[in-house]
Specification:
This protein is of the alpha/beta class. It is about 25% helix and about 25% strand. It has two domains: about 200 residues, Formyl transferase, N-terminal domain (Rossmann fold), CATH 3.40.50.170; about 100 residues, Roll (Methionyl-tRNA Fmet Formyltransferase, Chain A, domain 2). The chain has a seven-stranded mixed β-sheet with strand order 5-2-1-6-7-8-9. Strands 10, 11, 12, 13, 14 and 15 form a six-stranded antiparallel β-sheet that branches. The N and C termini lie far apart (about 75 Å).
């Protein structure tokens, strides 16, 4: 009796830098011949300005996989030839962080496939997970698309959906989507091997965009419904963080919110005062009116200080019922 035929393996290059790329990297290394990892260059970061490698680069070194960290791709003929010399069948991108030039996209015979953390054509761009949370979406997922010169505009080959768990934050949802993306890219490559990977153009009329967050995106919009304030907090928690303005004795300062909770409906006074007005200060924290409903500031962080209980901050700044927050 002959031994079962070994599944065909593709020679793959992975372009991925942050932690989101790691499940895909591990899955490709196990199932296929991962011959190259391409990550962003090492950078100096932190108070000590220590040289820090992207997560994808560190994992490649751990696994003994060839690693390239080019400063630029456009006009980089040496890197393009390196990809050709490795006889890469297909390249996969997962949050790589750089635009890929057309001459590089043409090198692998099966092109580039991108693992994108949204259900395209919704949330094209750099921050799909954050904006899905900010906008209060109930469902999200990953798309495997053919990479082309546009911003996440290529044909979609496969999608996987998942509900957004209540209380999900950017880091927790990103981790779940990273695992889902690894499963999805393996499924797409299996279909490619079988000659059954069908990719369809995106509906441009349904496209939405998820640009990189700015510091101002973390500003609490008290006039929004409480549900929207809580959703924004979950989406911006990793960066830039939620914050509000407060007129302290020493002047106007921005106070960061470390923990914010949605209050149950029916909080006394919530519908009869201006949004941003403090409704109560108690052991749980500071309850603030929104455009509809209220939220609780359970933990806050004043400038230059550590995070503290909302009540302690309020007591230290004489914040009482009726005070307006900006």
């Amino acid at each position: 009796m002959s031994a079962p035929e070994r599944p065909q393996r593709l020679r793959v290059a992975l372009f991925g830098s942050p932690a989101f790329a790691l499940p895909t990297l591990d899955a490709l290394a196990e199932r296929h011949a991962l011959v190259l990892v391409v990550a962003q260059p090492d950078k100096r970061a932190g108070r000590g300005m220590r040289v820090t490698s992207p997560d994808g680069a560190r994992r490649a070194r751990e696994l003994g996989i060839a690693l390239e960290q080019p400063e630029r791709l456009k006009g980089n003929g040496a890197f393009r030839e390196r990809l050709r010399e490795l006889r890469v069948d297909v390249a996969v991108t997962a949050a790589y962080g750089k635009i890929l030039p057309a001459d590089l996209l043409a090198v692998p015979p099966h092109g580039f496939l991108n693992v994108h953390a949204s259900l395209l054509p919704r949330y094209r761009g750099a921050a799909p997970v954050q904006w899905a949370l900010i906008n209060g979406e109930r469902e999200t997922g990953v798309s495997i698309m053919q990479t082309e010169a546009g911003l996440d505009t290529g044909p979609v080959c496969l999608q996987r959906t998942m509900p957004i768990p209540p209380g999900a934050t950017t880091p927790t949802l990103m981790a779940s989507l990273a695992e889902l993306g690894a499963q999805a890219i393996l499924a797409a490559l299996e279909r490619s091997l079988a000659g059954s990977l069908a990719c369809a153009p995106q509906d441009e009329g349904a496209a939405t965009y998820a640009p990189m967050l700015s510091r101002e995106d973390g500003r609490i919009r008290w006039g929004d419904p409480a549900e929207a304030v809580a959703s924004r907090h979950r989406g911006v928690g990793e960066w830039p963080g939620s914050r509000f303005a407060f007129e302290a004795a020493s002047g106007r300062e921005d106070v960061k919110v470390s923990e914010l909770r949605l209050q149950p409906a029916g909080v006394p006074g919530a519908g009869s005062v201006e949004p941003g007005t403090v409704l109560a200060v108690d052991a749980e924290g500071v309850t603030v009116a929104c455009g509809r409903g209220a939220v609780l500031l359970a933990r806050v962080q004043p400038p230059g200080k550590r995070a503290m209980a909302g009540r302690d901050w309020a007591n230290g700044h004489s914040v009482r019922q009726g005070v307006r927050l900006g």
